[in-house]
Design a protein that fits this description.
This protein is an all-alpha fold. It has one domain. Helix content is 86%, strand content 0%. It has three helices and no strands. Helix 1 packs across helix 2 and helix 2 runs antiparallel to helix 3. The longest helix has 30 residues. The termini are far apart. The model has no long low-confidence stretch (mean pLDDT 85).
Length: 84
């Protein structure tokens, strides 16, 4: 349930960010392309890494990749005026 809730929030947030910057049809197509590519390539690449390094190292690498995306996400964060 927690995974589904998190996915629903992130899905809508990323699509909304794209729609702010691109026409709606192009944003939707780009989001779906990125989602499908990640859904297919992510597990395949993770599996290849697991074969060579084992699960602990592969999960650590996954965590590092997620943390590497945080600065880019923070740059896109728009804080309403007066909050900070």
């Amino acid at each position: 349930m927690l995974f589904g809730a998190g996915f629903g929030v992130i899905e809508n947030a990323t699509l909304a960010l794209l729609i702010e910057q691109l026409p709606e049809a192009k944003a939707s197509a780009l989001w779906n392309l990125a989602y499908d590519a990640g859904y297919g390539a992510g597990p395949a690449v993770f599996g290849l890494i697991c074969v060579r390094t084992g699960y602990p190292a592969a999960f650590a690498l996954t965590g590092a990749l997620i943390l590497a995306a945080v600065p880019a996400a923070l740059r896109e964060l728009k804080v309403p005026e007066g909050i900070m």
